[in-house]
Amino acid sequence: MTDTMDTTDTDLKALTVDDATLPVIDLSGLATGDPADRLAVARALGEAARTSGFFYIVGHGIGQAQMDAVFAASKQFHEMPRSYKMRYWSGFTTNHRGYVPFEENGSKFPKSMNFNEAFDLSFEAPADHPDYLAEWRMTGPNVWPDLPGWKDTVSGFYDAVFNLGLKLLDTLALELDVDPAELLQHITAPTSQMRLLRYIENDMPSTKEMTGITAHSDFECFTILLQGTPGLQVMNADDDWIEAPPIPGAFIVNIGDIFETWSGGQFKSTQHRVLNIGRERYSIPLFFGLDYHAVVEPLEKFRTPEAIARYPAMKAGDHLMRMSVNAFRYMADAREKGILVPDYEVPEESPFHREARQTPS
After folding, report:
1. Read out DSSP for 218-283?
2. What average pLDDT does the chain have?
3. Which residue range is the domain that position 178 belongs to?
4. Total number of domains constituting the chain
5. Torsion of CA 49, 50, 54, 59, to 10 degrees
6. What predicted TM-score, i.e. pTM, was given to this entire model?
């Protein structure tokens, strides 16, 4: 099993470092101990964050064997019978952990469909954490299938990618010339979710209503994605969709809403989508987030009148829950039944409540 599983020879040749349409950034300079190398990486990350908002990273220190193992674990779970997977249905939890079946994707199902299923986990917080006890705050313990070795493989990969996220956070703070502690103070039990996604084989057309995942920006600081096959598309500065297929051994990273807010709009949280390519596809994103109650607003050095007006202060967890309630049908049902009672207000306007202006071709 490799990170280009279930691909054809054409897919494997779809993209290399030399012909990538998005920036490819080598992080190995972060490990040399030379401040000049670290600054060079920071500058490259900053340039990509200000332009495309999407970029590949290599030299990140996570080996191919660990990538292969987590893909194999994802495939092992998703190939289990439906009756087994439903034992771990996320709807049994109030912190969104476990299996998300195809029909749970989006509150408008079946009018619109995202052809994927997932196993979702996040930062492992204790069962006595106040936000877990309060319910519906995306915080608390994970659930784990009883597959031998599965938890160790998946949690080990989560830890490796989460630590990579901490390095990226620190390096982006250097690029913005802000104290990393100003950002790290919001990360004690973060809502940093990882999804083991399987896109489902089907014979439906690729339309705005029939997608792998519909167009959106990501809600957190940034996303670190390991993808197995092509299908991901990114909206460029000209509002055109461009392909972002996998590079073997690389992650693809995109800036999220929180970093766009922190930077006062300098960094770009970019629209992206996954087309319905009609065949099985695996990917594993980690959405690097903050503690539920962290207040997000432009950092002090970027707090201009224009930035304050465009990015009013919001609670990270409120923003995540606003989006999640509409993303998962069981949450929307719980809200309608009065089981999930929001403790947030939906603003009339938000820079992140936007839809892509292009439809699938």
Report:
1. -SSSEEEEEESSS-EEEE-TTS-EEE----TT-EEEEE-HHHHHHTTTSS----EEE---SS-EEE
2. 86
3. 9-336
4. 1
5. -40
6. 0.89
